[in-house]
């Protein structure tokens, strides 16, 4: 079990203007939030899914189903923390991750370090082990009406 394991995660949510936008546990005031059973934090969800995949533990929906009233409105960082616990129970921990947010807005660069710090603190790694980038869909979808995130997680044995 000493070999590294790699997992890929993806999450996407449409906009929902009646709630705050949260990405990587950071609130972006003045931006429409994302719809979903939880807080819609696509960054935390994609990373959680990547970690589950690398650990061979299935997907996010099998552990935190959308029809579970207990997890309704759950924050992305809390959700991610629960997945970290499951991954650790399986004898693994995050070694590093790389995430790409796909959205027209907001601009992530001014808040990137805050997001990296939130994610690193939640998964238990140094911030330099969390790579976070953003790109715009350039008119190919998600034209301000949602956001997506792709994540790759590398797990090592405890």
Question: Would you mind describing this structure in some detail?
Answer:
28% of the residues lie in helices and 36% in strands. It has 158 residues and is of the alpha+beta class. The protein has a single domain (5-157), classed as 2-C-methyl-D-erythritol 2,4-cyclodiphosphate synthase (60s Ribosomal Protein L30, Chain: A, 2-Layer Sandwich). It has a five-stranded mixed sheet with strand order 2-1-5-3-4.
Order of helices and strands: EEHHHEHEE
Classify the secondary structure makeup into a structural class. Answer: alpha+beta
Low-confidence runs of at least 5 consecutive residues: none
As a whole number of angstroms, the C-alpha radius of gyration is 15 Å
| Total number of strands | 5
CATH homologous superfamily heading: 2-C-methyl-D-erythritol 2,4-cyclodiphosphate synthase
The number of distinct helices, counting runs of at least 4 residues, comes to 4
Brief overview:
With 158 residues, the protein is α+β, with helices and mostly antiparallel strands. 28% of the residues lie in helices and 36% in strands. Strand 1 (5-23) and strand 2 form a beta hairpin.
């Amino acid at each position: 079990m000493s070999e590294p394991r790699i997992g890929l995660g993806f999450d996407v949510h449409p906009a929902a203007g009646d709630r705050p936008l949260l990405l990587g546990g950071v609130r972006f005031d003045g931006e429409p939030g994302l719809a979903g059973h939880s807080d819609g934090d696509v960054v935390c969800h994609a990373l959680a899914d990547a970690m589950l995949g690398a650990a061979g533990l299935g997907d996010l929906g099998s552990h935190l189903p959308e029809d579970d009233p207990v997890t309704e409105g759950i924050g992305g960082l809390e959700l991610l923390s629960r997945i970290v616990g499951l991954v650790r129970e399986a004898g693994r921990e995050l070694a590093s991750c790389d995430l790409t947010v796909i959205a027209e807005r907001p601009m992530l660069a001014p808040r990137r370090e805050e997001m990296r710090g939130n994610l690193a603190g939640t998964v238990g790694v140094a911030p330099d082990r969390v790579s976070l980038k953003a790109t715009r869909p350039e008119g190919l979808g998600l034209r301000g009406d949602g956001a997506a995130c792709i994540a790759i997680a590398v797990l090592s044995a405890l």
